Fold:
Amino acid sequence: MTEFDGLGYGEHRGERENAAADGGSREEGSGDEGSTELEELEIDLLLEAIYRLRGFDFRSYLRSSLRRRIRHRMNLEGVSTISSLQERILHIDGVMERLLEDFSIKVTEMFRDPPFFLAFRKEIVPLLRMHDRLRIWHAGCATGEEVYSMAILLEEEGLLDRTTIYATDMSRTAIALSKEGRFPLKRMQAYTKNYLQAGGSREFSAYYTTDHAYAHFLPSLKKHMMFAQHNLATDGSFNEFQVILCRNVLIYFTPELQSRVFGILNGSLASGGFLALGSKESIISPQRGDFEELNAEYRIFRKRVMP
Ligand SMILES: C[S@@+](CC[C@H](N)C(=O)[O-])C[C@H]1O[C@@H](n2cnc3c(N)ncnc32)[C@H](O)[C@@H]1O
Structure:
C-alpha cells in the first residue's frame, strides 16, 4: 500500500530541463555503442549494489538505456570506469541519488500524443459516465504534465468532481515537481496546440496563472490529485481503479519485468476498467487474455468482465 502523503519537497529547478537535455532525445532508445564483457559485469555489480543498499531494482531494465545513463553519469563525475563510479556511489554522499535520478527518464509533455487524448475523450469518457466515483492511476507520471492534462479533460467533460487521480513515479523529485503543478512558460505554446488537437475547445490559458518563467496550474485541478512515490519494479498493487495510464514506462523494462508490472496493473484495475499504454507498448504477458483491445492505434485496452 502506498502512502499518499508525507513526501518532502525539494528545490529541483532545472530537473526537467536536465532530463530533457540528457535523456529527452534518446528516450525510446537510439544508438548504443555496445559494451565489453567486463563492462557488463561491472554493471551487474553496480545494479546489485543499488538494489541491496537502496531497494531500487534496475536489474530488469533494458541494458542499452541504463548503459547510456551510466556513461553519462561517469562523464559528469569525471571517472573512466564503472567500478570507479561504483566506488563514488558507495562512499560519497549524493552520488547514488544522482545516478538514481539519471535512471528516471522524465521526458513528458502536456497532452502528449494528442490523438490518444482525443480518442480517450470520445471513446472512453462516455463509458465512464456510468460511475458515481472514479479513480484513475497514472503509473510513471514523471513531472505530472500527463496528470494535469487528464484533469483538464475530465473537467471539460464534467467528470472531474467525481474523480480522484492518483499519480505515482519511482522518482521522488518527479513527484515533488508534479505536486507543484508549474511548467515552463515557454512550453505553453506547444501545449496549447496539443490541447486543441486533443479536442480541447476552451482558452487553454484559463487553466493557469503565470509568473515570469512558469505557468502555475489551478488549485481547482490539483485538489483532485494525490501524488506518491511508487516503484513498479518492487512495490505491489493498490486500490481499484477504473482507469490506469502507464504510458512510455514499459519501454525501459525487459519482458520479465513488463510481465510483473502487468500483474500489478491487472490486479489494480476494476473489471471493465481501462488500461492505456504508450504508442510503442503492448501487453506481452500471459495476462494478455484478460484484456480486449479497444483501440489498437492508441493502445487502449479494457479488462474483461469475468463471468
Ligand atoms: C518517459 S516518462 C513517461 C511519463 C508519462 N507517463 C508520459 O507518457 O509522458 C517515464 C517515467 O517512468 C518512471 N519510471 C521508470 N521506472 C519506474 C518504476 N520502476 N516505477 C515507477 N516509475 C518508473 C520514470 O521515473 C519516468 O518518470
User: Anything to note?
Assistant: The chain has a mean pLDDT of 90.
